[in-house]
Design a protein that fits this description.
This is Helix-turn-helix domain-containing protein. With about 400 residues, this protein is mainly α. The protein has 16 helices and three strands. The chain starts with 5 loop residues before the first helix and ends with a helix.
Length: about 400
Amino acid sequence: MFIIPYSESLKALDTYIKNYNSQCTSVAEKLKQSTISTAKDLIRIYGLELLKIKYNPLMPLPPLRTNNKHLATISNTSGRTIQRHIKRLQRAGIITHKKWRGSRASYDIHILTEILCITKAKPVENLNPDRNKSNKVVIDNQVIAKNKTTICPHRDTSNNGYINNIIIAVDKWKTDTSSLPLTLSSKSRNATGNSFTRYTGEIAPKKYKNAGETARNTRVTEQTGAEILESDVARSVSLSFYVNALWKLARNTIYKEHYLTKSQEKKAKELLFKWYDPVPDKKLADVHQVYVERLGIVQKYIAKDPKSRYVQLPDKYFNPDNPSGFTGTRAWYYQQKKRELNVQMKLILHSQIRRFLNNEKKETAKQQPRLALFKACETRLGKLGQPHLVREFHASVLNHSTHKFLQFNT
């Protein structure tokens, strides 16, 4: 069961923002779509956190602890952009309070409770106010009749609960207790049923041992059925969030010029779910960022020749068993990372060469010690773990006179 009803909460957010924007005098004060998306992400993250801590609606709402880097990863924006969005949401009153905990720590924020639409639950003893009254009547009616009755057994000998009509309303008491939503499983006549539905025909959800959730599966024997269900619901919501985010990005980039039916979009989300399902909870954000970068590589590839380059339909492209689809971009991703690393190392090499040569061009009084500077540049390149960079540095800066000077001063 979701603590925050997302559909109602997002509608309340849209209504609040519409009223706020209508009262703004200038366009700059109004909340833009990017800021609204950040607010929706905050509500979704807050709902997941409340599920993880098993929040009790009878208790006061705890703050949401997060940081700009985490929000930027989810929203696919920069940390500075998230910082501006948080300030605008504070001015609008959507974020009622923000507690800063230091530049290297996460901050706490409180979201307007009217937007969250969290319904406060009633205490357990008051869930059915007529129950105590009916129970009292049942107990009072359990009296033995004083009138004389026959000693012959009832015709229906199998129903021995009605012999001589001595006990009254016992069957009604059984019906009431079995229909209560808080009936204990040990007292229920359906001992093998589900802890919520009491229906034995339901098939228990499968537990995938190789889904990257070893720690979560080892806790199954120590938890009750309700707790396991909450953890599964929390993970399902988290996976759905990342699946929807990646599909939205793919729909607006590589499938922007394509018409897709609802069945194709549904199939695409089902296949994307397979990409996230084996990933542990702690690595979902990092893996999602990798998938986003891989989609960016595909978009750049198509943009170079859009007339002759295209992607397959989602039911084939996102199939994990299709080496010509999204699976093939894994090699592209590693090639790009390798190329970026080589470029970065070349830039570091050129900066150290310029550093040494610029020092040589200065006057003697303004020069740094040649030997100390040479050793510093050599040490900087040595930390990269690429010996050929050090050799290229030597070949670029050492002429005959410099080599002779270093030879006699080392």
